[in-house]
Write a structure and sequence with these properties.
10 helices; single chain; mainly alpha
Length: 226
């Protein structure tokens, strides 16, 4: 995939030492594309490492096991597919990853708490799930933090008994999972690839592929639509 990032834009990361800025996604010059098989290997390694780290921390730390915290929230398996298999798409960048999951967790817990006041909460889980996910999607659109796996984060505290029991504690669990995911991605995706493409917002004129493998034709299509 061609590098479509402008490197002559002012970047605060350029002021850091090269050994540090590399692991935060900064490059002083463009890099050659990797063969597809090479990308596949790094995607496998990244997903494996991310989920293993999360499972190790939540599954083998007394602080979390004593609170019956799930070993891995399923939505972070979906996040792994994005940040490793589609690492340069807007929905895979740090703002979307952390912000999207946090919004999903917040709306999910608020919705669960609201419906939990009803005596027939079990019969209303379907309604609460729909409201929670739909609200999260709209908020992600408004805040430019669209991260599709966060839609699942929004319904987990409603449909799973273990997450429901966590209550507000679900928020820091999701936030920590997001930070762990981002930390592993910064390490694995910057060995031979580059991540993130941006931290908060794309630079003016920066073109990002909608999905990996878009290639030159996809970038040209984006140019034509601008």
């Amino acid at each position: 995939m061609p590098d479509t990032t402008s490197f002559d834009s002012p970047n605060i990361l350029s002021r850091l030492p090269a050994w540090a800025s590399r692991w935060l996604g900064y490059r002083s010059s463009s890099e050659l594309d990797l063969p597809a098989w090479n990308n596949n290997i790094w995607s496998w390694i990244g997903a494996f490492c991310e989920l293993s780290v999360i499972a190790a921390i939540f599954g083998h730390t007394v602080y979390f096991t004593s609170r019956n915290v799930p070993v891995i929230l399923p939505s972070f398996g979906a996040s792994a597919a994005f940040i490793y298999g589609n690492h340069d798409a807007p929905s895979s960048q740090p703002r979307a990853l952390v912000g999207g999951h946090f919004l999903g967790a917040l709306i999910g817990v608020c919705t669960m708490k609201l419906f939990h006041m009803a005596s027939n909460f079990e019969d209303l889980r379907w309604l609460a799930s729909g409201i929670s996910c739909a609200t999260t999607i709209v908020l992600m659109e408004l805040t430019h933090t669209m991260h599709p796996p966060a839609g699942a984060t929004a319904i987990i505290p409603i449909v799973t008994v273990q997450a429901t029991a966590l209550g507000w504690y679900y928020l820091p669990v999701v936030l920590l999972s997001s930070i762990l995911s981002l930390s592993v991605a910064l390490l694995v995706n910057n060995v031979q690839r580059r991540y993130p493409a941006f931290w908060l917002t794309p630079r003016p004129g920066q073109l990002l592929p909608l999905h990996r493998g878009l290639g030159d034709a996809g970038v040209e299509k984006q140019k034509d639509s601008m």
